[in-house]
Structure formats: structure tokens, C-alpha cells
Amino acid sequence: MGGGRNPLRNVKTIDSLKNSAYRFYFLGMVGQWGSMNMQQVTRALLIYRLTGSAAILGLMSLANALPQLLLSLFGGVLADRVQKKRVIQAGQVASAVVALSVAVALTTGYLSPQHPGSWWVLMVNAILQGTVMAFMMPARQAIIPEIVGKEQVMNAVALNSLGMGTLRLLAPAAAGFLIDAFNFEAVFYTMTGLYLMAVVFTNFIPATGTISRRGSSVLVDIKEGLKYMWRKPIILTVLIFTLAIVILSMPYQMMMPIFADDILKVGATGLGVMMSVSGAGAMVGSLILASLPNKRRGSILLLSSLVLGMALVAFAFSRSWPLSLGLMVFIGLGQASRQTLGSTLLQSYSDAEYLGRVMSVNMMDMGLSSLGTFFAGIMAESIGAPWAIGGFAMVLVLLMILTLVFVPRLRRLD
């Protein structure tokens, strides 16, 4: 009787959700993830339809990127000094205001083809949203170990990715439907409501950790954080590697309107479907990672990134709608694995005192992805979107092969 073993006893896919604090955190993030995934479809498609320019699409990504690149380190210091739930809530309120401003501009008719220069509203929106994300995202990531403990970090981060994947499956398709059925403003009003829902749930997260009131300046704290990362080879290697993957792989997201409208010719609904199918792949990857033990995470990160690169190369040159949908599954799986494993390794190997600042550098991935999109947009103007995205992906595949062979430190990480 005592010798029998339940083969499922070590499968702990939803362990973190048994923690009430994490449940409120997760529910609060649902509203935020839903809005972010709707925005990925809506803002890019709107500015492309207003301007018809891949370069302006890339410029909007740059506008979103610069605040994140310039201010993320300050957000990291804030996360190490202040109650993280308050930082998250402030960011959610600000995001709701930013989304509402675009909705009003659309409702009044100012943001429309009848006003050719009105796309500046979306540029300002991108700058403001990038600023909000720079200050909020480090706290959003750094709060996880304080809620669940380090032994459950991978499970909690994987469940986060599962939630994001689920919303990536549902939200873009919903956004595409709302655009075709009503218009763009319906999406931005929906986003506003989702952000406010996030504020309510986040309020129920108990206070975590201790508010640090250091006498040192913010710049001194940033310098100390950067020195800490430089002295920790594991953290530095993971940061450089994951940020390189982001630059090479993420530009496809902002270029998707070009593929949807001009190459595959499937419109807003088709764009939403493609992003949703990517979410399905992300869900599969997240479920697998949530169930795995904390072993060989470095190797899994490298292999999943290699799959991501190969899928992106094939997608870039595909002219088949069914083939493109199938490839989006592997793209979503690779992105979820990259995001989950990179964040988990950093949270597992970082000291708590510096975690906010470490995650602030990691959160620069959103800014760097937009920076990569800017250059991809410029390239797309001259050589076309397929070669721009495909070229980035080819470099990613080569980088993964070289890393697997020549960087055993990363490959052997648990």
C-alpha cells in the first residue's frame, strides 16, 4: 500500500494558483494582458491604414521603445524601493487613461483619414504607453517571488505566460471582430474597461516585502544594480542572450498588418486570427513549462528559441494562409518559452535586494523589440517585409546554433 506511487503526484501545473495572493495577481493581470493583446492588433493596424507606410509603423514602435529603454532602470529602482502592488496599480490607471484618450479621439472623428496628420495621436499614445510600461513592468515581474517564493517561480511565471497565451488566443480575434463589426474606438473603450478591472483585482494583493527607504540617490541605486549584474556572469549571460532573441524575433508582431493586408490579404479578422493562433501555441508551451521540474532550463531555452527562429523564417516567405496559421503556433510556442524561461532564470539566480533592477533590464525587451521593429520597418520600405522579418529570423537561427555549440554555461543552466 505504501509502495504505490501516483504518477501524477509530481505534476504541479497549477500549484501557484493555490496561493490566494497569486490568484489576485493573476486576475489583475488578465485585464492587463487582454488590453495589451488587443492593442498589438489595433494600434498597428490603425496607423497602417491611416498612413499605408511601413516606415511610420516602425516609427511608432520606436516611439514606444525609447521611453522603455531610457526609463526602465528608474522603474527597477522604484520596484526595489516602493510597494510593488502600488506601482502596478498606478501603471494600470495610467494605461486606462491613455487608452481612453485614443477612444475619444476616434469618437470625435479627429483621428481619421479625413485628418491626414492625425496619426500623431497614436505616436503620443505609443510614447505614453512606453513610459507607463517602463515604470510598471519591473515591479510586475519582481513581485512574483515575493508572492509565491523562489521554489515556485517557474510555475508562477509559466502560469503568467499561460494567461498571456490564453488572452493572445482570445483578445486579438475579439479586437479584429470589434474593428470589423463596429470600428477601432470599440476596442479602445474595451481596453479602458479591462485596465480598470485590473486595478480592482490588484488592490486585493497583500503588501509584500518591506518598503526600502534608502538614503542613496536613484542614480547611485542604478549604478549599484548595473555593477551587481556585471559581477554575476550567469545573470549577465541570460540578459544578453534573451535581449538578443527579442531584437531578432519580435519585430514580426508590428509588421503583421502588412502580412495580413498586403501579402495574405485576410484583413483585420484574419490578423486577429493569426495572433490568436500564436496565443494557442503560447498556451501549449506554457502548460508544458508549468509542469516541468527546475532542470535543464538553459537547454530548453536555446532549443525553443531555435524553433522560433526557423518558424519565423518560414512564415516570412509563406504565401499560404493555412501554412502561415500553422507556423504561428510554433512562433507562439517559441515566444512563450523564451519569455518564461528567461524571466525564471533571472528571478531564480538574482538576489532579492537587486531583483527589481535586474528585471528592469530584462523588461527592456519590450523597448528593444520596438527598436528592432523600427529598423525592420525601414528595411521593409526598401526590400519588403518578408525579407526584413526573414533576415532577422535567419540571424536568430544562426545565433542559436552558435550558442548551443560554444556557450555551455548557458546550455547547462538548471
Features:
80% helix, mainly alpha, Growth Hormone, Chain: A, disordered N terminus
Give your account of this protein's structure.
This protein has 414 residues and is mainly α. It has a single domain (16-207, 218-411), classed as MFS general substrate transporter like domains (Growth Hormone, Chain: A), CATH 1.20.1250. Helices cover 80% and strands 0% of the residues. The protein contains 16 helices and no strands. It has helices spanning 20-51, 54-81, 84-107, 120-148, 153-181, 184-202, 218-231, 233-249, 251-263, 267-291, 297-316, 321-349, 355-362, 364-383, 385-406, 408-411. Helix 1 (20-51) packs antiparallel against helix 6, helix 8 (233-249) packs antiparallel against helix 12 (321-349) and helix 11 packs antiparallel against helix 15 (385-406). The longest helix is centred in the N-terminal third of the chain and has 32 residues, at 20-51. The chain is globular. It starts with 19 loop residues before the first helix and ends with a helix.
Return the CATH architecture.
Up-down Bundle
Number of helices: 16
How many individual domains?
A: 1
CATH topology: Growth Hormone, Chain: A
Overall body shape:
globular
Share of helical residues? over 70%
Rg result: 21 Å
Quickly describe the structure.
With 414 residues, the protein is mainly α. The chain has helices at residues 20-51, 54-81, 84-107, 120-148, 153-181, 184-202, 218-231, 233-249, 251-263, 267-291, 297-316, 321-349, 355-362, 364-383, 385-406, 408-411.
